[in-house]
Write a structure and sequence with these properties.
This protein has 44 residues and is mainly α. It is built from 1 helix and no strands.
């Protein structure tokens, strides 16, 4: 029972970690796109 509980907690932590990684990657990407769009909209 205790083992099972530990395992489920472990899986939850993994999921959270994965989710956080996804968010971080998405934010980096959006920042990159922002920069790209700004550089495009600037007159040469």
């Amino acid at each position: 029972m205790v083992q099972n509980y530990k395992f489920s907690r472990y899986r939850e932590n993994l999921r959270e970690l994965f989710y956080i990684k996804k968010i971080v990657r998405y934010r980096k990407l959006s920042r990159y796109w922002e920069f790209y769009i700004i550089s495009l909209s600037k007159p040469q």
